[in-house]
Amino acid sequence: MNLLDLLQTASDNMFRSKIRTFLTIIAIFIGAMTITLTNGIGTGIKSYLNQQLGNLGATNVLFITLSAPSASPSSGPQKYTYSANSQVASGGGGRRAAVQLMMTSADLKVIGSIPGLTDVTAAHSPSPDYVQGTGDKYQVAMLPQYGSTTAPMVAGNGVSNSSSANQVSIPQSYVEPLGYRSNAAVIGKTVTFGVTNAYGVQSTVTATVTGVQQNNLLGESTLYANNALTTQIQNTQNEGIPAALADTFQTAYAIFPSNYTTAQINHLKSELTAKGYTGSTIKDKESTIFNAIDVVIDVLDMFGGIALLAASFGIINTLFMSVQERTKEIGLMKALGMNPRRIFLLFSIEAVLIGFWGSLLGVAVASLVGKAINAIGQHGFLKNFPGLNLLTFPPRTILTVIIGIMLLAFLAGTLPALRASRKDPIEALRYE
Amino acid sequence: MDQQTTIKADHVTKVYGKGQAAFSALQDVSLQIKPGESVAIVGKSGSGKSTLMHVLALLDKPSNGEVLINDENAARLSGRQIDGLRNKRYGFVFQQFFLNANESVLSNVILPLKIAGVGRRERKEKALKALEAVELADKANSKAADLSGGQKQRVCIARALINNPSVIFADEPTGNLDSHTGALVEDLLFKLNKEQGITLIIVTHDADLAARCKRELYIKDGRLTKGSNV
Prior knowledge:
By secondary structure, chain A is an alpha+beta fold. Helix content of chain A is about 50%, strand content about 15%.
């Protein structure tokens, strides 16, 4: 029998007892749908977070801090040795009471000497007192823009670090307080920041608004400043601080070529470690969050897996029944010269087909359900997460689910198929 | 018919079971069937006649002795070769028909060619020719279940004919038919024997049918009692 005939015969056989086949397909369908949905949620949330975390910087940025002295809590007090880097961080309104290792511009030179790292910059934390548009003054939180990948904007563009002019992007919630009616109206307008120096004297710095950020998970109220603005605010707030103290910061960042492989990035990190620094990429920061998501998805997948396990016993049962029912037919085919391997194949294909239809139905319905949930969610329970497609189904996942289930079905089919292929034709023909 | 087939059994014994429960279905059976012969294997039920047919048709293996196909020991053939032999040189007609009731007459008839992997067009052509030979061409698209007993057995003969066999094994071919339709089926088988030179090996307990064969082999308690010519 050639493959096409086998396929057709298996398919015909499958539909011979329609209700039984249908019920088995339903069982597969439930498992396939569960797995597709859980994976869809995982992918959806991850791609949303990816997008949201995008504003922390491009993927080719290394965040560098001084390595903490390795002391485990249980090892008792550590002996003190003087280090120029050890200082109590004075900024931040006393929130960071712990001893923080501060870097100076000397560190930047050391880091810059590592081949592959460019644009080594101190990550200052600009902390203006207020922002003012055409009306009242409002409190403000500000982050420097790292690299060139900015958060998604609903109007205008993200700030550019290559510009020498002061630039800032603002969250949607700031548009009206700053005195503008629409997101578009604020683009290109000038806003004023109040900055207090070490003597307690307040002065102002101005910047142009280049974009309005999409609402996101991490900060509905964080403004992003480009290098020029960050530097000016920093210089203003450091007036009156001893130069040695003004030149301190906790984090530096450096750019590496974006075509670097993981191995190359790891090499950079180990070079940093050798020099007493710790480097981490945006991916490292993400992976902590993603690991947590993965655990949740894995648990959900397990439910789908259990459903599929139950379903594969359904396949075994169904096929055993049909082997039994078709004993005479198998006997006849063997008597007429069909070789046992083909008989095995015939029943295996039937099992795989059950898996195929069940999984196809499962992923199809899961996709439809996903689309519906996304559509409803955007206007309802996910209103506060614009841009979040709770369920995302990349074709590769769908293909993996279908192929995986077909494989499972094949395995489930081997036992009945083996029994069919081993039937003695004489016994089978005598069977009533 | 592509090739002549001579079937020989040499001191064939078939034992079922072991020890105390052992039962000899065939004991020291030797015979030879030449191409174009018509042979009846006659005996009561339980005499071993079906077992003999199964052994000759390579559906079963003898416990002792040899079955030779054109002087080649069947025990030396691989499973694949034996399957190929049954598929291409043998035709089978059974008392209970073994038709797939839900499928069309045509798809029942093409089964041996489907198993052989013959292309769709060719096998349909051959199936129609085989159905013409049994005068059922007009029933090609009917469901097998809708046919009468005699028609069913003729479909079986068409199925046995489709691969141009050199030997047809018929196990009680008229056992389920009334005498009139039975006679028609017999006529058909002997016509094939006469006109196409197909060897007929008929297992029966019907003395009239046996008498129409050129040679009758009587079997009792697993032993040939009359007609062995080796």
